[in-house]
Specification:
alpha+beta; single chain; two-stranded antiparallel ribbon; globular; 4 helices; six-stranded mixed beta sheet
Length: 230
C-alpha cells in the first residue's frame, strides 16, 4: 500500500469536467478510478518497484485495501475473528497506532484511513507504528463512510486543501450510475472506514491464525499491484 522506491510521490495532472459532470484527467488511464466507484484518484509518479518506503500511500492500492477489506501489507484478504460467527462480515483485523501524531492517546473506535491486515502482516512492523505503538483489534463494524481528498474548482488557480468528504449513498456501488455531488469534484487520496463495536485482538490468537494461513510465507512478497502512472 505504501509507495515504493520506484515511485516518486503523488501527482495530479491537468483536470477537466467530464460530460457526466465528474472531473477527469485530460489523459485518462485505467487506474484513475477504483472499479465500481466514480471518484477520481490521485496518481503516482513512477512505477511500483523495490521496497515500500515511508508512510505515504498509493491512492489506488489504498482504495483496493479499504474497499475490498484487503490486507494493507500484502493485499490478500484481511484476517477475521475466529470467535465470531461469519455472517457475511466476519469482524476484520485492524492494526492501529496507540498514539496520534501529537502524542495523545488514539481511540480504537471512529474514523480510520488505515486498511485492515492479514494475521501474518499484523505481526510485522510498520513505519507509522514504529514511533506511535500499535494495537490489534477486531472491528464488529467497519463501514466505508468517506475519503480524504482535494476539491477541484474550474477556473481556480489551485485546488483546495485536503479535506474529509463523506461518501453519499449514491457515490457508486457498481449497480447504478451515481449522480454528481461534491464527490464529482474530488481528487481522492485515501478512503476512510468508521470502526465501531471494536474489541482487542489477542496476539496469541493472531499468531495462531498466521501459522494457519495458507502459504503464510507468501505474505512476505507483495501481491500484484497497479502499475505506476507517469
Amino acid at each position: 500500500m505504501a509507495l515504493t522506491t520506484g515511485e516518486r510521490g503523488l501527482h495530479v495532472p491537468p483536470l477537466t469536467p467530464g460530460e457526466d459532470g465528474w472531473i477527469t484527467y485530460r489523459n485518462p488511464s485505467p487506474y484513475d478510478r477504483y472499479p465500481g466507484f466514480d471518484v477520481l484518484l490521485m496518481r503516482t509518479l513512477g512505477s511500483p518497484s523495490g521496497r515500500p518506503v515511508g508512510a505515504q500511500v498509493s491512492p489506488f492500492r489504498q482504495a483496493l485495501c479499504m474497499i475490498e477489506l484487503a490486507c494493507q501489507g500484502c493485499r490478500r484478504p484481511a484476517a477475521r475473528n475466529p470467535a465470531e460467527p461469519d455472517e457475511g462480515y466476519g469482524h476484520p483485523l485492524f492494526v492501529l497506532p496507540r498514539r496520534r501524531a501529537d502524542g495523545s492517546p488514539r481511540p480504537v473506535e471512529g474514523l480510520t484511513d488505515m486498511p485492515p491486515s492479514c494475521a501474518a502482516c499484523a505481526l510485522r512492523w510498520c513505519p507509522v507504528l514504529q514511533d506511535r505503538g500499535r494495537q490489534l483489534v477486531w472491528a464488529g463494524q467497519a463501514e466505508l463512510v468517506g475519503l480524504y481528498g482535494s476539491l477541484f474548482v474550474p477556473g481556480a488557480s489551485s485546488m483546495l486543501e485536503e479535506q474529509y468528504v463523506e461518501l453519499a449513498e449514491d457515490a457508486g456501488d457498481g449497480d447504478e450510475e451515481p449522480r454528481p455531488s461534491v464527490l464529482s469534484a474530488v481528487v481522492a487520496e485515501r478512503f476512510v472506514r468508521n470502526l465501531q463495536n471494536v474489541t482487542p485482538a489477542d496476539p496469541a490468537v493472531v499468531r495462531q491464525l498466521a501459522a494457519q494461513q495458507d502459504r503464510a510465507a507468501a505474505c512476505l512478497s507483495p501481491a500484484p499491484v497497479a502499475p505506476g502512472r507517469l
